[in-house]
Write a structure and sequence with these properties.
Layout lengths: L1 E6 L3 H14 L6 E6 L2 H11 L3 E4 L2 H4 L5 H11 L4 E6 L6 H6 L2 E4 L4 H14 L15 H11 L4 H8 L3 H14 L12 H5 L1
Parallel strand pairs: 1-2, 1-3, 3-4, 4-5
Helix pairs in contact: 2-4, 7-9, 8-9
C-alpha cells in the first residue's frame, strides 16, 4: 500500500486531489491518503507515518513569515524517505525546495500528466523503515478538528461539520493542546518567537 500525504492550506484543493487520487485506480498498489492543512501535523506525520509521497502546495504557508522555519523542518523530515511533489501557481519555490523536491508542477497541470508523475514518484520512492514507524500523535478525528480549527472554523461549525457534540469539540481541542504541549488555545496559531515571548 502506498501512503500519500496531501498538504495544502485550501480545503477544497485537498479534498479534490484526494477524491481524484482515490478514483484514478491506475497505481501499482492501493493508496492510503492523509490530507492536512497544518505544517506541524505534516511534520509529525512524515516522521511517524512515513509516507511514500508528499504532494504539497506550500505557497500559502510561505506567505506567513513564521511558517518558513516549519517549511524547512518539513523538508528535512521528508528527505530521503519520501518523495516530494510541489504544486504551485507561482514561482515561489526556494533553492532548498528545488533541491528537495522530486517534481515541481503547475497546479493547472493536466490530470493525465499528473497521474504519470505521481505514479513515477510512488514507484521510485525509497523503502520505508517499518522498524521506526510509530503511532501518530493525534487521532484522525483530532487531526480533522485541528485542521478546521486552524482554518478559523468556529466551534459550533466544527461540531456540525463533523457531526459531533459541541462538548466533544471542546474535548478534542483540549486533547490536541495537551498532546502538542501548547499552553493555551491560541498557541497553535503563534510563531515560536511569539510563544516564547
Amino acid at each position: 500500500m502506498y501512503k500519500i500525504l496531501l498538504l495544502d492550506r485550501c480545503h477544497f484543493s485537498r479534498q479534490g486531489l484526494e477524491s481524484w487520487l482515490m478514483q484514478v485506480n491506475a497505481f501499482a498498489a492501493p493508496l492510503s491518503i492523509t490530507s492536512l492543512s497544518s505544517l506541524l501535523l505534516a511534520k509529525e506525520h512524515i516522521e511517524g507515518w512515513q509516507p511514500h509521497l508528499i504532494i504539497a502546495d506550500l505557497s500559502g504557508f510561505a506567505a506567513e513569515r513564521h511558517q518558513i522555519p516549519l517549511i524547512s523542518s518539513l523538508i528535512r523530515s521528508s528527505s530521503p524517505r519520501s518523495r516530494l511533489v510541489l504544486l504551485q501557481y507561482d514561482d515561489f519555490t526556494s533553492t532548498d525546495l528545488h533541491d528537495a523536491s522530486w517534481a515541481i508542477l503547475d497546479k493547472k497541470i493536466a490530470l493525465t500528466d499528473m497521474m504519470n508523475i505521481v505514479d513515477g514518484a510512488l514507484r521510485s520512492s525509497p523503502g520505508i523503515n517499518h522498524a521506526r514507524t510509530v503511532a501518530p500523535l493525534l487521532t484522525r478525528q483530532e487531526e480533522k478538528v485541528l485542521s478546521l480549527w486552524m482554518e478559523g472554523t468556529s466551534h459550533g461549525t466544527i461540531a456540525r461539520m463533523l457531526n459531533i457534540n459541541g462538548k466533544t469539540v471542546y474535548t478534542y481541542k483540549r486533547n490536541i493542546r495537551l498532546k502538542l504541549k501548547v499552553e493555551n488555545r491560541f498557541s497553535p496559531f503563534l510563531s515560536t518567537a511569539e510563544r516564547r515571548g
